[in-house]
Amino acid sequence: MNERYERGLARQQELGGATALRHRVYDALSDIAPDLHRYAVEFAYADIHARPGLDSGSRELVILGVLIGLGSVDPQLEAHITTALNVGLAPASVVEAVIQALPYAGFPRVLNAMTIARNVFAERNLLPLSTNKDSQ
Prior knowledge:
Blueprint: H1 3-14, H2 20-29, H3 36-49, H4 56-70, H5 74-86, H6 91-100, H7 102-105, H8 107-123
Helix pairs in contact: 1-3, 4-5, 4-6, 5-8, 6-8
């Protein structure tokens, strides 16, 4: 492993570790694209995610917005909602970020993202969420 890869892995650990989901996605593709995981760790985490200028929570909100806009990225949405919680974002903030995408990404993508968020929250025993706006 090279220094860049090690730096990317360290950044993933800072974010709460690489989720099992990410490993399943990359492992499932390792027989046809064995370098894909390394590219993702080096580029996305060592080069981009570790840059100064935004805190981890802000970065995750940006990532969530982009993923919601892209659509058809359920595993990545699940992984980054998990990371958003790992870095300290409140579930209510994740919900608001998903709702914020509504006028730009549309109902189908937002409903899908909200369903994924609900599943992540359920896995973490975070449901039901408080509906009190002051708790955000």
